[in-house]
Design goal:
The complex is a heterodimer of chains A (271) and B (308). Chain A is an alpha/beta fold and 271 residues long. Chain A is built from 10 helices and 5 strands; from the N terminus they run H-H-H-E-H-H-E-H-E-H-H-E-H-E-H. Chain A starts with a helix and ends with a helix. The chains are: A alpha/beta (271), B alpha/beta (308).
Chain lengths: 271, 308
């Protein structure tokens, strides 16, 4: 259980990070706003509680790791990495610009703290499985976290990976689904169908836990829940979370933030 | 007769006994690729089932954690089926994964075009950071495998199915260097894999007709040994490349790209001519699609006649 002070701290960090994401995407003139805002609490929890990066050797993989399989959510991840000190916050202004260390999608070679290059959907779960498997073979006691988008579950490779992970008892693998229910052109259910995700993953042999992805207590208990199986955390989130006019709006998948939008958003985020 | 893939399986096991970071991954064809031999080493052999894309992703994760994964399947599946996974999860993040594809080109014979990788070199060669290798015989297989494991970065090795005549003298094999097997100055025959044997046989016959052919084995298709290639080009009147692959995007294309820029001379590419082949015995396919010493001889003689 998190204590009140910890929750207060994590909530404050989340508010700060939402503000920085909006500033960054406004300056960049493009970017995936909705799917970055839905991720904030999960990332804040992981990087302030579970993943300790050695600032001298950020590339070292002898630690808990994160594969952001939904790479388009990287504005949130870059902001968190800047917040914990992997690079100066000024660098966020260079996001997607020529010669920047911050690419449009995560690049492990360019950005300190990025554990894996992603961006072509469906690939990160397999990579996370490889990390978890390596730790098992080496006898290392690290955990691998993966974040998938809910739309990403339409990729076939996810299901190849789902079969493999449970057959190999990867209890050191914890996968979040950022279940924000919208994708680029429609609601996820219009394409994927109305399905019981929890049942599907259980049937594939996973420990399945459904939570409110913006609630730190629920994230904490899901992460700490003991199991011998690979774990899937279906995190129900709100796309565009925190900015009223962006919440649950399909167009805010990657709409350009105008000056008006920017001012209105910052007003809502005043902290 | 012991095949080049048998040596791959055996040598990999021997290397794996000493180098504990090696992990071998298979997609349910290990008995054919011979990677199954590695299962002797227990959990360092990983059966991924019929799910090549996931297998490639897992290999990337293993490499992130400092292991040396060897992902194996038929050349056609390990490259074509997983192209985007190799591109995004291996080549772009520059991970230390060795990709091994067996049954290359027409050596998948009777299984037909669905199983014949005639485009795998093209697919792997266009990827930044990727090294592309094709050993000609068993001796070269050993060296290519050992050296590629020492190399830190993504590598693709294509292996043929079937018996491979010995063509290389082990002392002359220098990793990543073009190996000149026979000197000559009328024509330079550049070959990869099983085609090296055919090139040598053709050159011998040509000699009886006073045509002096140089024969070189190119086991490293990328990066290409430009210095030796230029030396060869300066010595001969024209070049003939022969490969068990499409003439589009393969070794012949790689050679042409370099020489067109640095030392233009006529280059004739022999290989599968922008077509899917068909089911048949490999030797029959080589015959029908022109991958024979007779075809090499015929083309060279015609070219010499028309030009001089």
């Amino acid at each position: 259980m998190l204590n009140t002070e910890e929750i207060f701290f994590l909530k404050q960090k989340s508010a700060q990070i939402r503000k920085t994401i909006i500033e960054m995407l406004y300056q960049a003139g493009s970017g995936h706003t909705g799917g970055s805002l839905s991720l904030v609490e999960i990332l804040v929890y992981l990087y302030f509680k579970e993943i300790k990066i050695n600032m001298e050797k950020p590339k070292s993989t002898e630690r808990n790791m994160l594969i952001l399989s939904k790479g388009h959510g990287c504005p949130a991840l870059y902001t968190v990495l800047a917040e914990i000190g992997l690079f100066n916050k000024d660098v966020l202004k260079t996001y997607k610009k020529l010669n920047s260390i911050l690419q449009g999608h995560p690049d492990r070679l360019k950005t300190p703290g990025i554990d894996m290059s992603t961006g072509s959907l469906g690939q990160g779960l397999s990579v996370g499985i490889g990390c978890a498997l390596a730790d098992k073979i080496k006898g290392d006691n690290h955990k691998t976290y993966v974040i998938l988008g809910d739309g990403e579950l339409q990729e076939g490779q996810i299901w190849e990976a789902a079969i493999f992970a449970s057959r190999n008892d990867l209890d050191n693998l914890c996968v979040f689904i950022d279940n924000n229910k919208l994708q680029l052109t429609s609601k996820v259910e219009e394409i994927f169908g109305k399905r019981n995700l929890s049942l599907i993953w259980k049937d594939f042999g996973w420990e399945s836990i459904e939570i409110d992805g913006h609630d730190f207590d629920e994230i904490d208990s899901a992460v700490l829940y003991p199991t011998k199986k690979p774990k899937i955390v279906i995190a129900n989130t709100i796309k565009g979370k925190g900015i009223s006019f962006m919440e649950n709006k399909i167009e805010w998948h990657s709409k350009k933030i105008s000056e008006d939008d920017y001012k209105k958003a910052l007003n809502e985020l005043l902290i | 007769m012991e095949e080049i893939r048998d040596i791959f399986g055996k040598e990999l096991l021997e290397i794996g006994k000493k180098e504990k970071r090696i992990i071998v991954l298979d997609a349910d064809v290990g008995s054919s690729t011979r990677s199954l031999k590695f299962s002797e080493l227990g959990q360092r052999f990983i059966q991924c089932g019929i799910a090549e894309q996931n297998m490639v992703g897992i290999s990337a994760g293993l490499a992130l954690k400092g292991m040396i994964p060897i992902v194996t399947s038929f050349a056609v599946f390990i490259t074509g089926r997983c192209y985007d996974q190799i591109r995004i999860s291996i080549a772009y993040p520059k991970l230390n994964v060795k990709i091994v594809g067996s049954h290359a080109g027409l050596t998948a014979g009777p299984d037909g075009p669905t199983h014949q990788a005639i485009d795998d070199i093209a697919l792997m060669r266009d990827l930044p950071n990727m090294m592309v290798l094709e050993p000609a015989d068993k001796k070269e297989m050993k060296i290519v495998l050992n050296e590629s494991i020492k190399h830190n970065g993504p590598v693709y090795i294509r292996i043929n199915r079937g018996g491979s005549p010995e063509v290389c003298n082990i002392d002359d094999i220098c990793f990543k260097k073009i190996n000149i097997l026979k000197k000559g100055n009328d024509v330079g025959i550049l070959a990869s894999g099983f085609m090296v044997d055919k090139a040598l046989k053709a050159a011998k016959i040509l000699e009886t007709e006073h045509i002096n052919a140089l024969v070189a084995d190119i086991h490293c298709i990328k990066p290409l040994d430009v210095d030796t290639l230029l030396d060869i080009a300066r010595k001969v009147r024209f070049i003939l490349t022969i490969e068990n692959h499409s003439i589009i995007g393969g070794m012949g294309s790689a050679v042409s790209e370099i020489l067109a820029e640095l030392y233009p001379l006529p280059i004739i590419k022999v290989g599968v001519k922008d077509t899917f082949a068909e089911s048949a015995d490999t030797m029959q396919l080589f015959e029908k699609y022109g991958l024979t010493e007779a075809n090499i001889i015929d083309i060279i003689k015609r070219h010499l006649k028309s030009n001089f």
